[in-house]
């Protein structure tokens, strides 16, 4: 599987319900560096697993709306908006955040991830800034 296909498969997985996804896609030595509206956080495999346990407890569904997915060797760059359905309002999908991620793939798993995110709001969703661009 190519690095790009791996990330695409990760985005298409049932991250909100399948507890095996982290073992399936993340390297045991992985580290995620995430710049969010709350500042920089760094997570290792165990911390990532704990984070996604909380995600599974809060959301019924997650959807990655990807606008860019670029590959060069074992690096993949992705740009997407993350949408979710909460447990409280199962039928209503809400935009959570916009992301740009650079993934380093090792042994066909995510070994490093460098993520930048900002909260999604109606203005950004309604703009053309997050529309898919054909390259």
TrEMBL record:
Question: Known Pfam families for this protein?
Answer: SnoaL_2
- The source's domain of life comes to Bacteria
Task: List, for all copies, the residue spans of the domain called SnoaL-like.
Answer: 16-112
Annotated InterPro entries: NTF2-like_dom_sf (IPR032710), SnoaL-like (IPR037401)
Q: How is this protein named in the record?
A: Nuclear transport factor 2 family protein
């Amino acid at each position: 599987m190519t690095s790009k296909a791996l990330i695409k498969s990760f985005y298409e997985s049932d991250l909100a319900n399948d507890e095996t996804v982290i073992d399936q896609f993340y390297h045991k030595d992985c580290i995620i560096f995430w710049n969010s509206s709350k500042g920089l956080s760094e997570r290792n495999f165990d911390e990532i697993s704990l984070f996604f346990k909380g995600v599974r407890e809060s959301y019924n569904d997650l959807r990655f709306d990807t606008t860019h997915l670029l590959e060069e060797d074992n690096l993949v760059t992705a740009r997407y908006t993350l949408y979710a359905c909460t447990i409280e309002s199962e039928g209503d999908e809400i935009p959570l955040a916009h992301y740009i991620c650079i993934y380093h793939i090792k042994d066909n798993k995510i070994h490093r991830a460098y993520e930048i995110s900002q909260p999604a709001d109606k203005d950004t969703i309604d703009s053309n800034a997050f529309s898919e661009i054909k390259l």
